[in-house]
Design brief:
Shape: globular
Oligomer: single chain
Number of strands: 10
Order of helices and strands: HEEHEEEEEEHEEHHH
Largest sheet: 4 strands, antiparallel
Radius of gyration: 24 Å
Strand content: 15-25%
Strand order of the largest sheet: 3-10-5-8
């Protein structure tokens, strides 16, 4: 989960676009916010996206692509965004308000404007590792799994950036999950091979005939 302020150049108008192109050449000079236009956002949302500082060196084009898929979600004060153990299919950017991330009822981090959360559930398709609770009314921008993978087709740097900003513990968990997936894949391939070999043996044992005695050649 990412914390901090925001990071991007502001879009709008010919002069603004020219200024953004110039600023995009040097990531250290990027502005804090990005204006999202309802004409380009697929959900029809328009407003200012407070881009996470961790995204600073991904460049304007990548952040602009992400902004196309963001869906606004208003979470009233005192409500849970998700619960620990709940299957996740989206990550969220905190655009306004404060989110308390809790493990077994104890707050482990407070997320404010420009932070994000839920990326682990998005990438690994497994249960959430903590509760997320609103301390005040929040405007969240949601990015779901299908849109995330569509963005990755153009900008694989997004996955790398999310991974870079995870804790060592989370990185270790991701590696373990990936290793287990490889083992499962190899085991499945072995089982399929063994099943096919057994089918050939049985077929040969019938002398080319099925159990009804009909020729199967």
């Amino acid at each position: 989960m990412g914390c901090g302020g925001s990071v991007m150049a502001v879009e709008g108008g010919t002069k603004g676009k020219n200024d953004m192109r110039a600023r995009d050449k040097t990531s250290s000079t990027l502005g804090d916010d990005m204006i999202v236009n309802s004409a380009t956002n697929l959900s029809g949302w328009s407003g200012i996206w407070h881009v996470p500082p961790a995204f600073m060196d991904m460049g304007f084009a990548c952040c602009q692509e992400i902004s196309k898929f963001l869906k606004p979600l208003t979470l009233p004060s005192g409500e849970f965004l998700f619960y620990e153990g709940e299957k996740g299919s989206s990550m969220y950017f905190v655009n306004e308000g404060k989110i308390s991330v809790r493990v077994q009822g104890k707050q482990v981090v407070l997320l404010e404007k420009g932070a994000y959360l839920g990326e682990l559930g998005l990438m690994l398709q497994e249960g959430r590792k903590a509760d997320a609770f609103s301390l005040e009314e929040c405007l969240l921008l949601e990015l779901d799994r299908n849109d995330f993978y569509e963005i990755l087709e153009k900008y694989s740097v997004l996955a790398s950036k999310l991974y870079e900003n995870m804790s060592d513990e989370v990185r270790s968990h991701i590696k373990k999950t990936a290793d287990e997936a490889v083992v499962r894949s190899r085991t499945l391939a072995s089982e399929i091979y063994q099943s096919s070999e057994l089918l050939v043996v049985r077929t040969n044992g019938y002398g080319g005939r099925d159990v009804q005695g009909e020729n199967i050649e």
